[in-house]
Amino acid sequence: MAGIPDKSVDLVLCDLPYGEVNRISSGLRNLDKGLADVCDIDLEHLVLEYKRLCRGSVYLFCGIEQVSQLRKQLVLAGFTTRLGIWEKTNPSPMNGSRLWLSSIECCVFGRLPKATFNEHCKSSVWRAPSTRSKLHPTQKPEALMQRLILASTHEGMTVLDNCMGSGTTGVACVNTGRSFIGIEKDPEYFKIAQERISKAIRP
């Protein structure tokens, strides 16, 4: 990220490691996300980098315990914030007879003054089905990423995902005519993302 020029990114759309999911699986659902759930990122420093390179908005999917920290740092960095909620329309039924279904995930939204915003007077609850056939353990649905890209950019603008995983945000950028910068430290997932994005690019 240090090599990205100042104020050259119009949107950050990132699914951070939550640091709260990994535990022994019950058999109904895989609760071990491996290194994809291990958060070794300094969130305060990360937000300062977003402030440096971003001229628009950020969407940060995150764990419940990360929400307050990220929101605080974004406010200090000059962003107006909202809490976004991804409501899964097909949640896992695990423990549904005893508890409310685990059917939502949090996203901290931050917007700088004059940033693009195209979903006027809409709720910050976004409904979309969870991806069942996953290439990455925390993969988000392409339709959700595409909606957020369309909400906060115009065609030709640049989107950054610094936790790219299997490249869903990159595919959504190709499909909507946006430029994409992707960063992923796991070489296997980086390769998967490259292949998916290359296939999405039409000749």
Structural topology:
Elements: E1 9-15, H1 43-53, E2 54-62, H2 64-76, E3 80-88, E4 104-111, E5 125-128, H3 142-152, E6 158-161, H4 168-176, E7 179-182, H5 187-200
Parallel strand pairs: 1-2, 1-6, 3-5, 6-7
Antiparallel strand pairs: 2-4, 3-4
Helix pairs in contact: 1-2, 3-4, 4-5
Description of the molecule:
- Helix 1 (43-53) crosses helix 2 (64-76) and helix 3 packs across helix 4.
- Helix 4 links the parallel strand 6 (158-161) and strand 7 (179-182).
- The chain has one domain: Rossmann fold (3-Layer(aba) Sandwich), CATH 3.40.50.
- It is α/β, with parallel strands linked by helices and 203 residues long.
- The chain has helices spanning 43-53, 64-76, 142-152, 168-176, 187-200, and strands spanning 9-15, 54-62, 80-88, 104-111, 125-128, 158-161, 179-182.
- A seven-stranded mixed β-sheet has the order 5-3-4-2-1-6-7, sandwiched between helices.
- The radius of gyration is 16 Å and the shape is globular.
- The protein contains five helices and seven strands.
Quickly count the domains. Answer: 1
Kindly report the CATH topology.
Rossmann fold
Strand order of the largest sheet: 5-3-4-2-1-6-7
Largest sheet: 7 strands, mixed
Termini, distance in Å?
29 Å
Q: Which parts are unreliable, with pLDDT below 50 for 5 consecutive residues or more?
A: none
What is the CATH class designation? Alpha Beta
Average per-residue pLDDT, rounded, comes to 92
Shape: globular
Structural class: alpha/beta
Tell me the strand percentage band: 15-25%
Order of helices and strands: EHEHEEEHEHEH
Number of strands: 7
